[in-house]
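Q: What structure does this chain adopt?
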Amino acid sequence: MGEARAVPVASASSYPGASDADADADDDARTRRRAVPPLAILACAVVAVSSAAVAFRALPDVPPLLLASWRLQATSIVLFPGFVRDAKRAAADDIERFRASAPELVASGACLGAHFGLWVWGLQTTSVPHSLLFVCSTPVLMSSCAALLGFPVRARDAIAAGVAAVGVILIAADANRRGDDSHASSSASPIRATWYGDVLSVGAAFAMAGHVLVGRQLRPRMPLFAYAFPATLVAAACLAIASAVSGESSSDGGGGGGAGWVRSPRAALVVCYLALGPGLVGHGGVNASLKHFDAMTIALALTLEPAIGSAIAYACGYAVRRNGRRPARRSAILGSARLGSTRLGSARLARRRRRRRRRLPSARSSFPTPRSFLFLFARRASLSTNARPARRSTDD
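A:
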C-alpha cells in the first residue's frame, strides 16, 4: 500500500516513427567520431572544382554545350552506384517523399545544366581568370537579389559579398589594363578577355545561385546520391538536347556526337578526370556540405575558385602572359579579398552554430521535424480542452 510505484513516462521512442529516428541518431553518434569534418570536405571540394577550368581547356575543339554534356554524363555514371545504394536503403515513405520532390530536382538539374553550359561557353571565349572570376560572383548576386526582393540580409553577409565584389573589380581592371591572355593549348592562339565571355560567366553564376538555393532545400531531407544523381542526370540531358538543337553535335567540331568522348582516348581521359575530380570530389563535396552549411557560406567558399584555379592554370601553362610575366599583383589582392570574404562568412556561421548549441542542447531539438510540431500542437490542444471544464466549475 505504502510503496511508491514508478509511474511510466512516455518516452520519445513510444511515439509512432520515433524508433527509426532513435536508431538513426544512435548510428550518427557512433559514426560521428569517424566522420570526416564538414569543413575538410568543403575545402577538398573547392580545390577539386578549381581544377575543372584547366581540364576544359584541354579540349578546345569540342563545342561548349557538348563538352559540358560529356562532363555531366560521366559524372552521372560515377554517381549511379551510390544512387542505387541509397535507393535500396530508403523506406517506402522516403521513396514517396523523393517522388514528391521531383519538380524541385528537375529545377535543380536545369540550373546545374545552365551553369555548366554557360560557363564552358564563356570559358572558350574569354580568359581563365575572367571566367573563374565572374562565374564565382554568386555571393554578390545572392545578396543583391535577396536585398531587391525584400529578404533580410545580415550585415556580415553583405560585407563579405562586398569584399568579394572588390576582388571582382580589381581583377577585371587589371586584365583590361595589362591585356590578360590565356592559351587553350600549346598550339592554340591566345584568348583575350571579352565582354561576351564575361556576360556568359555571369549568367553561369546566376544559374549556380539557383542550383545552390534549391539544393539547400532538398539536401537536409534527402541522401547525398539520391539528390546528386537525378540532378546531374537532368543537367546532362538538358545540355545534350541543347547541343543537338543548336547543331553542335552534327558540326565539324562536334567531337563524335552526344557520346563522342568514349571514342577518343584523350577526350575520355579528360572527361573521366572531370567526373572523378571536379564531379565526384568537387560537386559531390559541395552537395554533402549543403547538409552542414548554409547556401551563403558555400557560395563564399566557392569564391576561392578564381585564385586557386588561376594558380593551377599558371602552373600547367594554360594562363601565361605573352611577355612571360607571372600573374599581376592585383591577382594576389583578389585572392586576399576572396579569403577575407570567406573568413567573414565562416566566422559568422561558427558563432551562429555556437549560439544554437547553447540554446538547443540536442541535435534533434535544433532541427525539429513536422511530426514533432504536430505532436506538440495536438498535446497543447488537448491540455487546453481539459482545462476548460475546471475553470467553469470554479466559477460556479
